[in-house]
Amino acid sequence: MRTTPELWPQRVLPTRRAWPLFDTAGSRHLETRAQAALPPGTLMRRAGLALARWTLARYPDARTVWIAAGPGGNGGDGLHLAAELAQVGRQVVVSLLADPAQLGTDAAEGLARARAAGVRLLDHLDIDDSACDLGVDALLGLGASRAPAGLLAEAVRRLNAAAAPTLAVDVPTGLACDSGARLGEAAVQAHSTLALLSLKPGLFTGSGRALAGEIAFDALDVGAGNDDKPVAALAHAGEAGSVSRALAHDTHKGSYGDVLVIGGAAGMHGAARLAAHAALAAGAGRTFISLLDPSVATGDLTRPEWLWLHSAWTDETRLRASTVVCGCGGGEAVRVALPGLLGHAARLVLDADALNAVASDATLQGMLRERAARAQATVLTPHPLEAARLLGCDTARIQRDRLTATHALVERFGAVVVLKGSGTVIGAPGRMLAINGTGNAALATGGTGDVLAGWIGGDWAQRIGRIAEAPIDAARDTALAAAELHGAAADAAADQAVRALDLVQAMRAEQAARSAPRARAD
Hints:
alpha/beta; Rossmann fold; UDP-N-acetylmuramoyl-L-alanine:D-glutamate ligase; 2 domains; 11-stranded mixed beta sheet; 8-stranded mixed beta sheet; 19 strands
C-alpha cells in the first residue's frame, strides 16, 4: 500500500534530481530482486495500477481506450491496465497480439482480470480507432532488440495514424531502451511514456526524447539497492551549477579568471566572436581573442570589453594561466595553434575544427592523450559527425549508441566529453555518464555550439582557486552546468529557432533568474 506521494507516477522533466538510469541488464537485476521479495504477480499488478493512475491523471477525458498488447511483460502490464480502467468505468478494447496460452503467469493473471472486468478482447487490429480517446502501446518493452514486424508493426502504424494521443508503457515500441536508437522504421510516436520500475537511458538521448514525448516514472514501490548499478544519471540544474551567480564583494576581475578564445580563420570570424560573447556573459574576469586570420586588425567596437592578442598560441606563459577555447571557426588554420595549446594550456576546450584537426592527425591525438597524465584537463565538445571522425567510424554508429560512443571518446583521450545532440551525453574519466535533460531542436542553428564552448570556458575559468576540485572534476562540473543551462535557455523558445547571439543573452537571463533571491513572506 502506497503511503508516500513521491512514489506515485510523476513527471521527470524538467528535473532537479539526478535520476539514476538503468540499462536492460540493470533493470532486469532490479526486477528479479523485487520479484523475489514480493508475492507472485505483485510487481505487474503495481504496474497496471500505476499506468491507470497516470492515465486518469494525464488523460481524464479519455472515456474509450484502445490497448495494443504484445506477447511479453509489456503486454501483461497493458492487460492489468485494462482491468483497472474498466473497473472505474472506462470503455476498454484490447488487441492482444499473442497466443493467450503462451502468456507468462503474471500476464495470464492480467488477462483473467481483464475478462472479469468486462474488457473487450480481440486477437486482431480490426477496430475503429477513430472512436478511441487514447491509444496505449503495450507491445514491446524492456530488452527489445529487433524492429517490430508483422502484426506488431501494423499496430505501431495504427497507433501513430490515430488521432488520439498514445501512451507508451515503459518505452515506446521500436526504441532501444539502452541507447535511444530506433530499432527500425516502425516506432511508436508517443504523446507520453510512463517508465516503470527504472528509468532507461534510451528515453533521454538519441531518438528517445522525440519518440517518448512527455516522460513520467513510477518506481512501483521498489528502491534501488547497493548492488543495483545505474549506467548513467540524468543531469539537473542544481548538480553542478555555475559558480558565477555568487559574486563576493571584495573580489576583482582577476578573481574570475582569463578566457582565451583562439579561432576565427578567414571568413569565419563570427564563430570566435560568439564564443567570446558567451565566455564574457558567463562571467569570466577577462576575455581575450586571438584570431587565426592574420589579415584582420584587432579590436571590435561591438564588444570593447574584449582584449585582442596576436598569435597567443605561442605565448606559453599566457596559455598556462588561461582557460583556452579553441576551434570555433578555426578552419584548416587551427592546425598551427594546436601543438602549443595541447602542450601548455592549463585548461582547454576543443570544439569544431580543432576536433577535426585532431581526428586527422595521429601526433595531435597523442599530445591530447598526454595532457591527462600531466593533470591538464581537456573538454571535447563534438557533435555526432565530429565524434565519428575522432573514433574513425560513421555518424550512424555514433547515433546507434551515444553512451558507448561517449565512453569510447573518454577512454581514448582521457578527456571530459560533451557529445552534443538530442540528449547530450557528458562523460569523464572514472565518472559515471550523465545525460542532459534540457534542450530541443531550437538549438539546431549555426553558432549555438560556439556559444556552448565559450560558456564552458567562461564558467570554468571562475572555478580555479574558488572551488576545491580536482582538475577533471572541475572540468566535468563545468560541462554539466553549461550543457544544462544551454538547453534550458533554448527550452524557453521551443517553438522557434534560437539565434546564437540571442542564446547568449537567454543563458545569462536564465542564470540570473536562478540566482535571484526568492521573495520572503514576512
